[in-house]
């Protein structure tokens, strides 16, 4: 029996995905609507997905106890939801001509809650809603995420990274591409996204596997001691100094992971630049340089480009560290992985605290509404925050019976930040225009109060989307363009063809990463590419 991916690849207009960071807002050749199981009474089913061959004008896809069939990406094993509490009488998912998705109850007795609101008879969702992910609670038992996914084979080795979303698969692919390339790597990502895990995966898949991996948090080292701690010191180099080889010596022939590299003092940055350029470091108190063979992997959640502009970070060092730049998507951009991560952390924490028997005796039961709220949550602390939520759930629940979220977790999810890319919770009635719910702005302020550094930070945080940036800063949208001109922020219209093509090659054709490197929004870059006839 062919796998779901193989079967769908024969459909008109569908082909294996290009190397992209995430879904486009439309249904292109790389992405199709999919349903991923975020929660199921049988935990082994969490993470299964069904690719949906939805075409405009077709009858759509039925969703019930018996249809569609779900499988792991790349697997030939297929099973329907199969839960006895789910009705055999289906609801229907239909693609409309304007690329919206319509969900119809069509008389099914099955209780369906969509993005926190009961379905009713029918509701439409926009392409933006689909890109952000639409959360369905089925029969108060099962939680599904309707989103865009791609045709791909499941990785044999997960490299220690949990998940199967397009974003995390892209990270794995880039790590494998770096296996034989012993170059410095700059890992970018928001706090809690797993930058050290990615650094360890880079180490363990490369030629230095089995050799030292030394992780250093530059933000935790006092500036006065940073040079000594990194490069070592001779006895007597300064008052109380002892002879030691430093972190570079400890990581010899292995990998030195510099977390929060943006916190490194300027004088130490100069020494690090020399280590990267000529492979030499100078121990404090020594008269000669010594060779180093440690590979550097750096990580940051800071805007290093802004730090360069303000003089807090050396431009040449940024360019040297970023011989290759690997960007980790935030959890809100890989919502289909939330169920997979939740179950992974649940098993880990139950085992850690001696409660593994809960899974064997099926004492894990959680309300579907709680799991749906987890998927809709915006997760500012990313994967680390989700792990902490699972830990609190395990520790705060009684020793017997179902797990109990308790008041603290319930309050956390009740005050969920507005998703940056999501649509309105309930979608729209048929015929209405599905719109994107705006991000709640900060308190209104004067545009003149916005500093250049603050502007750059907001632009990068909002992926250079002008409307979102204005809302984040709490200023009128019209004023954001004045600030952009005032501070000479480059726009997509300023980009030349050769620069775009060069950056696309460096980013392996990834338009989203290219846009980030060029400092423009993805939409604006795509518009400029069309103007320049760049395919």
Topology of this structure?
Blueprint: H1 4-8, E1 31-39, E2 49-51, E3 61-63, E4 91-95, E5 101-104, E6 112-114, E7 117-118, E8 122-125, H2 127-132, E9 134-138, E10 142-150, H3 166-177, E11 185-188, H4 195-205, E12 213-217, H5 226-231, H6 246-250, E13 255-259, H7 266-278, E14 280-281, E15 290-291, E16 295-300, H8 304-309, H9 315-321, E17 324-327, H10 338-352, H11 357-360, H12 368-376, H13 382-396, H14 406-414, H15 452-461, H16 466-473, H17 477-486, H18 497-506, H19 511-518, H20 522-531
Parallel strand pairs: 11-16, 11-17, 12-13, 13-16
Antiparallel strand pairs: 1-2, 1-10, 3-4, 4-5, 5-8, 6-7, 6-9, 9-10, 14-15
Helix pairs in contact: 7-9, 10-13, 15-16, 16-17, 18-19, 19-20
Characterization of the model:
The chain is of the alpha+beta class. It has 3 domains: 4-154 and 333-414, Tumour Suppressor Smad4; 166-327, P-loop containing nucleotide triphosphate hydrolases (Rossmann fold, 3-Layer(aba) Sandwich); 447-531, no CATH class. The protein has helices spanning 4-8, 127-132, 166-177, 195-205, 226-231, 246-250, 266-278, 304-309, 315-321, 338-352, 357-360, 368-376, 382-396, 406-414, 452-461, 466-473, 477-486, 497-506, 511-518, 522-531, and strands at 31-39, 49-51, 61-63, 91-95, 101-104, 112-114, 117-118, 122-125, 134-138, 142-150, 185-188, 213-217, 255-259, 280-281, 290-291, 295-300, 324-327. The strands form 4 sheets. A 6-stranded antiparallel sheet has the order 2-1-10-9-6-7. A 5-stranded parallel sheet has the order 12-13-16-11-17. Strands 3-4-5-8 form a 4-stranded antiparallel sheet. Strand 14 and strand 15 form a beta hairpin. Helix 18 crosses helix 19 (511-518). The longest helix has 15 residues, at 338-352. The two termini are 36 Å apart. The model is unreliable at 1-29, 417-425 and 435-443 (pLDDT under 50).
């Amino acid at each position: 029996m062919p796998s779901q991916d193989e079967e769908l690849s024969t459909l008109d207009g569908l082909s294996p995905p290009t190397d992209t960071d995430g879904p486009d807002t439309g249904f292109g050749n790389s992405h199709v609507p999919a349903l991923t199981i975020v929660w199921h009474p049988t935990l082994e089913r969490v993470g299964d997905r069904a690719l949906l061959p939805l075409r405009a004008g077709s009858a759509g896809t039925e969703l019930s106890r018996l249809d569609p069939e779900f499988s792991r990406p790349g697997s030939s094993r297929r099973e329907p939801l199969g839960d006895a509490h789910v009705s055999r009488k289906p609801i229907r998912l239909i693609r409309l001509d304007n690329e919206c998705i319509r969900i119809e109850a069509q008389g099914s007795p099955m209780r369906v809650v969509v993005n926190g609101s009961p379905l009713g008879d029918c509701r439409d969702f926009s392409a933006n809603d689909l890109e952000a992910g639409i959360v369905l609670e089925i029969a108060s038992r099962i939680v599904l995420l309707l989103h865009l996914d791609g045709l791909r084979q499941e990785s044999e080795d997960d490299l220690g990274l949990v998940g199967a979303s397009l974003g995390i698969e892209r990270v794995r692919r880039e790590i494998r591409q770096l296996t034989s390339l012993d170059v410095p790597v700059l890992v970018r990502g928001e706090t809690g996204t797993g930058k050290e895990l990615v650094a360890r995966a880079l180490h363990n898949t490369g030629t230095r596997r089995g050799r030292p991996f030394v992780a250093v948090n530059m933000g935790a080292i006092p500036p006065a001691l940073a040079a000594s701690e990194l490069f070592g010191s001779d006895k007597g180099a300064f008052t109380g100094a002892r002879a030691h080889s430093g972190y570079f010596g400890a990581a010899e022939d292995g990998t030195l992971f510099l977390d929060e590299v943006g916190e490194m003092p300027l004088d130490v940055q100069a020494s690090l630049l020399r280590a990267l350029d000529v492979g030499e470091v100078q121990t404090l108190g020594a008269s000669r340089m010594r060779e180093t063979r440690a590979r550097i992997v750096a990580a940051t959640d800071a805007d290093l480009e802004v730090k360069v502009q303000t003089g807090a970070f050396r431009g040449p060092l940024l360019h040297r560290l970023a011989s290759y730049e690997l960007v980790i998507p935030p959890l809100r951009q890989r919502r289909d992985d939330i169920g997979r991560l939740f179950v992974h952390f649940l098993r880990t924490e139950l085992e850690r605290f001696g409660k593994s028997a809960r899974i064997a005796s099926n004492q894990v039961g959680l309300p579907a509404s709680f799991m749906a709220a987890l998927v809709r949550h915006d997760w500012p602390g990313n994967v680390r925050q989700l792990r902490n939520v699972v830990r609190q759930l395990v520790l705060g629940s009684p020793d017997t019976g179902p797990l109990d979220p308790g008041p603290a977790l319930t309050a956390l999810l009740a005050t969920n930040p507005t998703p940056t890319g999501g649509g309105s919770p309930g979608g729209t009635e048929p015929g209405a225009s599905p719109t994107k719910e705006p991000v709640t702005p900060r308190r209104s302020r004067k545009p003149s109060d916005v500093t250049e550094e603050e502007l750059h930070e907001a632009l990068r945080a909002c992926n250079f989307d002008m409307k979102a940036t204005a809302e984040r800063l709490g200023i009128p949208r019209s004023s954001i363009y004045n600030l952009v001109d005032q501070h000479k922020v480059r726009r997509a219209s300023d980009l030349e063809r050769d620069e775009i093509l060069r950056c696309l090659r460096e980013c392996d054709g990834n338009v989203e990463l290219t846009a980030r490197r060029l400092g423009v929004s993805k939409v604006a870059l795509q518009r400029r590419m069309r103007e320049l006839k760049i395919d």
